[in-house]
Amino acid sequence: MRVIQAIYGWIDERFDVTPELEKNVTKKWVPRTLSWAGCFGGLAFFTFLVQVFTGMLLLMYYKPHPDAAWDSVTFIKSNVTMGWLVQRIHAVAANLMITLVLMHMARIAYYKIYRAPRELHWVSGVFLLLLTTMMAFTGYLLPWTQLSYWGAKVGTEIPSAVPYLGQDIVEWVRRGKAISGETLGFFFSLHIWILPAIISSFMGLHFVMIRRTGISKPL
Amino acid sequence: MAHEHEHDHSHEPVSNGRRRFCQMCIGGAAAITVGTVVYPIVAFLKLPMRVGESKPVEIELERLTVGQAYYADFQGQQVIVVMAEDGPRVFNASCTHLGCNVVWDTAHGNFHCPCHGAVFSGEGKVVSGPVSTPLREVPFEVKNGTLIIS
User: Fold this and answer.
1) What is the enclosing helix (H) or strand (E) of B105?
2) Contact (CB<8Å) A85/B40
3) Among B44, B49, B51, the residue to mutate for chain A (most A Cβ within 10 A)
4) Which superfamily does A35-213 belong to?
5) Does the distance separating the beta carbons of B44 and A80 come in below 8 Å?
6) With a cut of 0.85, is the ipTM above it?
7) Residue B51: closest C-alpha in chain A
8) For chain B, is the Cβ count within 10 Å smaller at the N or the C terminus?
9) Where are the alpha helices (DSSP H) in A16-145?
10) Burial of A169 (0-12, 13-18, 19+ CB in 10 A)
11) What are the tens digits of pLDDT across the range B99-145?
12) For B133, which DSSP code?
């Protein structure tokens, strides 16, 4: 304990951490009127972090190729120690994240927190909802099971309802006429790099905005 | 004021027992929480068990042609089976110079190392290149027309 204090003291002397820490964490009081429902946004962010870390672990073994994807996931579940747990957490926390995002939105909508000056918080939040569902959809294909294959087929069918361009969009998303190894590679790159990068920047915006305006306090 | 003085305990030694107990409970709960997160991660990073890694190599002699080589993986290392006139020979493919895998040159009947050009004869002896040690032979046995490396 004394060692930790000494190290903290050394850093604090140089970077003056304590006032910042007090201002933002230890002496930043939660408003008395705020209910537990105010946690949903933070919890959604927490599940995102869980997804990032379990995802990193799964990536050590996952192989994004139609011949190897299913085998590699089975390998994680049956041969890697605690692999079944990490894989399950990643799958369950995905559902949990969507649930929490929706609960967060429901509260904001019910208490009309989206009104001025917080309109852009809502707009960025809607983008975050869409990005979250895209993360879930692209991740669903990766284990390359029957369920994920047909799930991706039905899901990528949806843009075909767009007038004139529909079929082109479907083929663009599928990287061809049918779900194939190309689709798997595309969804993999979306799932592990492109979407996380976009979702992180939207989250950053979302958090900076709420720090600028402050949270809405019920009367 | 005199009445208040009777209940003044400020000069008695303070017992921190209850506070210490609470601190220990919080610390213990925190340690368990951290442990349940860290343990699966450390376990996950451990080298996983691979199925069939130390399987013996079995090759039917009928499949081997004189002057030709057969490559196989044995305990994570490449081995080369070469069929000579007087029977099969098995070598560890790892070059005795810096460990690249040598390849069998059917036309010349010798081993070539792709990294620094070492050449070994069909018996594994040094012919030329930056090496002084012959290729390592791998023990094997022949049972019922099958070559077994185990």
Assistant:
1) strand B103-105
2) yes
3) B44
4) Cytochrome Bc1 Complex; Chain C (1.20.810.10)
5) yes
6) no
7) A79
8) N
9) 17-21, 40-59, 69-78, 83-110, 119-141
10) middle
11) 899 999 989 889 999 999 999 998 899 999 999 999 999 999 888 88
12) S
